[in-house]
Structures are given as C-alpha cells and as structure tokens.
Write a structure and sequence with these properties.
Helices cover 32% and strands 16% of the residues. It is built from 5 helices and 6 strands. The protein has a two-stranded antiparallel sheet. The chain starts with 6 loop residues before the first helix and ends in a 5-residue tail after the last helix. By secondary structure, the chain is of the alpha+beta class. Strand 3 and strand 4 form a beta hairpin.
Length: 136
Amino acid sequence: MPTDISAELRKLVIERANFRCEYCLLPEKASLHKHEPDHIVPRQHGGKTTEDNLALSCLRCNRHKGPNIGSYDPHTGELTPFFNPRKQSWSEHFRFEGAEVLPLTAVARVTLKILRINDEPRIREREQLQKAGLFD
C-alpha cells in the first residue's frame, strides 16, 4: 500500500466505505486481505492523494483496475470512464441478481469488464458469502 496516505486519511476512506469495497461491495470481514485505498484517478494520470480521489477497494478490484481510468464499452465501442464512487451512486449503475452484479449503464459495463467483478470464481464466492450471511 502506498505510504503517502496518512493514517487519518486511510481511516476516513475505510469508515466512509463502511469497510466494503466500493466497486464490488465485498465486505472486508469476508476477505482474506485488508481492503486498501485506491486512487480513482491514478497518480500517473494526475490524480491526487485526497479524500475526493480515494475509494476503498478490495485487493482484486484494485489489482485489475491498475492505472486504468476507463475502457471501451463492449456494447457501443465508446471509450468510457470507470465508475467513480465519489461522484456516482453504485445503485444507479449496478444491481445484484443473486450473486451476479448486473450493469445498468456503460460505466458499469466497462467497470465490470476490467475489474472482472463477474468472473466465475468471484460469483461463486459471493454465493457462498450470501449463504453464510456475510454478504448482503
């Protein structure tokens, strides 16, 4: 994890997200790894280490997102930015159907595709967590 994020800012990011990944909604308590602050706009693209540019991310979402800021929408072919938890509402872009996350917008389609949120192992994991009452 980056060392330039102060303990105070890290705490704010974690508590604001209610200990859940702001992309896939995985609760930290159900993860093998601690969630980490993600630069929504990565530093290499001019993103700052400020509360309005940080989101709590699980290890998998953060690693798949990497330094990307968007991708091509698989339906339209248009270059589309990823979901931004600081500026957008999760429920306006995504919804659950069982353990699968369904896209409601182009933003959701590119986010789901690049962050691989609906890869089969992740869907199976959410199914198991839902059955155990750890993912609601």
